[in-house]
């Protein structure tokens, strides 16, 4: 049944729904005051018409919908309705919010809530495509570029539909690539129904069944083509079809910084630590297939600043580091190590299988809780831990945190100025291959770390030569060379 005041041309609708692949599909609808009531009804009609091409059901396509104005209002989640009739009825019952245009907030809710398993999204390992369709008619009152990039990186394919005077650059910042397939702009709401036939061809495509895809492990149909994916422990080769084990020299690493934000550190030194992290980030090959970086700050509580899977470009990581707000309270280092072990290096937060894992713990005082238990669990799981202590940090705690031998993974200085007195350690120390790991795998991880160290050292050298580093960060420069000099020495046989 179509809306009586807006019947689409029957030429746009096929009598039998196509045999589309299962999807987790969420509509994200602009319900701002700039949309007139009659146009709002046209958007609802467009959604109902589009549903005719979807086989809705628990084992078929699941549909969710949220609308937004100044706030986000979820109408129904992916697990609310199991039949198309119930979904259509819910769409018809929606009421216009007629407030602001917080598009970025809506995309954030879509990523963080709408596509969670609690809301009905199926587990990622089932490879069910996650589709978000954003329909908007105006300029967002918040930023969309960063949060939309995070959503796409999280595996959500975004279609951006603009109506009227929407800026095309805004739509491109929202939509997935290629933009020619995912970004659409129409002059007014009466023309939005012309997109029905466009999406019919996309939603009815199951490329993996209709083309010779050549994927070595798994083929996953998308709304416009297909992509190849690899099983756990493998990475996609350059041809986009073959799968391979990570090789030495691929420059792959999962690196998590654990930063002390206690009141004893002080705001000024906290800013120096932030610059220290940013200087390292500048020299890393941060990408989807390269280095992943996460960071958590702790004081009395632990706060994840960003996860390993959150950013895929260095610029975004550095922006996140610069936005960090100093917590300035207690010092629960043990809780931070627990969070790192249980969450930061989890698959949910972006940690990858068979990839070297490194944790850099920075602290300047005595922990108010035990550190040894969770540090041991992290190290036993394969995480290499470096403990960096300044000021009132306790040597015994640093040794409990650091990987063995602790003389290679631990450093302490009385204050930030004393850090500058450290000289680079000799590199004749040997590295013993753990008994439970093949030597090839361990040395491969070492080569990734060596590449990491080389990039960091060169970058900091340039910063020093160009006087970009603050005067007090001279010590941090040498500090960094000491840390990653040990990463090299532990890999030399």
Keywords for this entry:
6-stranded mixed sheet; secreted; globular; 17 helices; glycoprotein
Detailed description of the structure:
By secondary structure, the protein is an alpha/beta fold. It is built from 17 helices and 16 strands. Helix 4 links the parallel strand 4 (130-136) and strand 5 (156-163).
Give the arrangement of secondary structure elements.
Layout: E1 24-30, H1 37-51, E2 62-68, E3 72-76, H2 84-92, H3 103-114, E4 130-136, H4 145-153, E5 156-163, H5 168-174, H6 179-182, E6 183-186, H7 196-203, H8 207-210, E7 218-221, E8 226-229, E9 235-236, E10 243-244, E11 253-260, H9 267-282, E12 291-298, E13 302-306, H10 314-323, H11 333-344, E14 357-363, H12 372-380, E15 383-390, H13 395-401, H14 406-409, E16 410-413, H15 416-419, H16 439-465, H17 474-489
Parallel strand pairs: 1-2, 1-4, 4-5, 5-6, 11-12, 11-14, 14-15, 15-16
Antiparallel strand pairs: 2-3, 7-8, 9-10, 12-13
Helix pairs in contact: 1-2, 3-4, 9-10, 9-16, 11-12, 16-17
Short description:
35% of the residues lie in helices and 18% in strands. With 493 residues, it is α/β, with parallel strands linked by helices.
Structural class per helix/strand content?
A: alpha/beta
Low-confidence stretches: 1-17, 417-478, 480-493
Give the end-to-end Cα distance, rounded to a whole number of Å: 74 Å
Content of β-strand: 15-25%
Helix content: 25-40%
Shape: globular
Main sheet: strand order? 3-2-1-4-5-6
Largest sheet: 6 strands, mixed
Mean pLDDT comes to 78
What is the overall number of helices? 17
- How many β-strand stretches? 16
Rounded Rg: 26 Å
């Amino acid at each position: 049944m179509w809306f009586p005041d807006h019947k689409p041309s029957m030429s746009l609708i096929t009598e039998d729904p196509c045999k589309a692949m299962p999807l987790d599909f969420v509509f994200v609808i602009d319900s701002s005051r700039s949309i007139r009531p009659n146009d709002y009804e046209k958007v609802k009609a467009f959604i109902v018409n589009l549903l005719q091409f979807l086989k809705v059901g628990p084992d078929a396509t699941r549909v969710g919908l949220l609308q937004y104005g100044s706030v986000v209002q979820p109408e129904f989640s992916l697990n609310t309705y199991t039949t198309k009739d119930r979904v259509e009825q819910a769409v018809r019952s929606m009421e216009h919010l007629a407030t602001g245009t917080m598009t970025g907030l809506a995309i954030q809710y879509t990523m963080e809530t709408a596509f969670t398993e609690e809301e009905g999204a199926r587990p990622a390992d089932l490879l069910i495509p996650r589709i978000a369709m954003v329909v908007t008619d105006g300029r967002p009152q918040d930023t969309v570029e960063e949060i939309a990039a995070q959503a796409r990186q999280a595996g959500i394919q975004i279609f951006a539909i603009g109506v009227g005077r929407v800026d095309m650059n805004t739509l491109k910042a929202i939509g997935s690539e290629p933009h020619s397939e995912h970004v659409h702009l129409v002059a007014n709401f009466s023309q939005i129904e012309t997109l029905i036939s466009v999406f019919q061809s996309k939603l009815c495509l199951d490329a993996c069944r209709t083309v010779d895809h050549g994927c070595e492990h798994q083929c996953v149909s998308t709304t416009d083509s297909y992509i190849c994916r690899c099983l756990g422990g493998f990475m996609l080769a350059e041809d986009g079809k073959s799968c391979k084990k990570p090789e030495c020299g691929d420059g792959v690493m999962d690196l998590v910084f654990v930063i002390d934000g206690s009141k004893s550190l002080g705001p000024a030194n906290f800013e120096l630590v932030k610059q220290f992290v940013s200087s390292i980030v500048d020299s890393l090959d941060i990408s989807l297939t390269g280095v992943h970086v996460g960071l958590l700050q702790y004081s009395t509580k632990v706060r994840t600043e960003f996860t390993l899977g959150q950013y895929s470009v260095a610029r975004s990581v550095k922006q996140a580091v610069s936005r960090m707000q100093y917590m300035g309270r207690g010092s629960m280092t043990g809780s931070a190590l627990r969070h790192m072990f249980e969450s930061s290096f989890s698959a949910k937060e972006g940690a990858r299988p068979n990839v070297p894992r490194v944790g850099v713990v920075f602290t300047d005082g005595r922990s108010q809780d035990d550190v040894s238990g969770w540090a041991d669990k992290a190290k036993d799981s394969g995480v290499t831990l470096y403990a960096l202590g300044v000021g009132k940090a306790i040597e015994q705690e640093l040794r409990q945190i650091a990987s063995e031998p602790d003389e290679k993974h631990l450093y302490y200085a009385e204050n930030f100025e004393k850090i500058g007195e450290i000289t680079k350690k000799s590199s004749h120390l040997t590295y013993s291959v753990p008994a439970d790991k093949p030597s090839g795998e361990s040395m491969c991880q070492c080569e990734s770390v060596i590449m990491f160290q080389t990039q960091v050292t060169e970058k900091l050298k340039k910063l020093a030569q160009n006087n970009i580093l603050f005067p007090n960060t001279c010590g941090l420069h040498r500090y960094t060379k000491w840390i990653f000099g040990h990463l090299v020495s532990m890999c030399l046989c």
